[in-house]
Amino acid sequence: MVTNSQQGITAIILTLALASAGILHAEPRANERIALALSGQNCSPYHQAIAKTLYQVHGVTRVDMTLIDGHVLIDRVQDQRTAEDFRAIINGVLPSDAQCRAEVMESCISADPMPPSHAH
Fold this sequence. Notes:
CATH class of the domain at 31-104: Alpha Beta
Structural class: alpha+beta
Shape: elongated
Distance between the termini: 60 Å
Strand content: 15-25%
């Protein structure tokens, strides 16, 4: 006959075993990069507003608009939003009369994602 204390001890041992195996520990998923092109004229005045908005999106770890001219590189945790979602977010920041628009790129940018940055 198994007592309640034995069941409790078994549950604790099982929990510890699963945690040490990493099954119960939620590891952050690897970063993935999304590249968007900024097309049109005079996009630079909107860079700060775009970056500020993107950093507010859950899962975004870094935004870079200086690495490649005319592009927004977004490093994010996988399984969050899609490139289309980010395109819509950026275009939502831009005034309707702005000549600048974000477009999804089929990534030709193959550099590894950048390490997370805490500076916004």
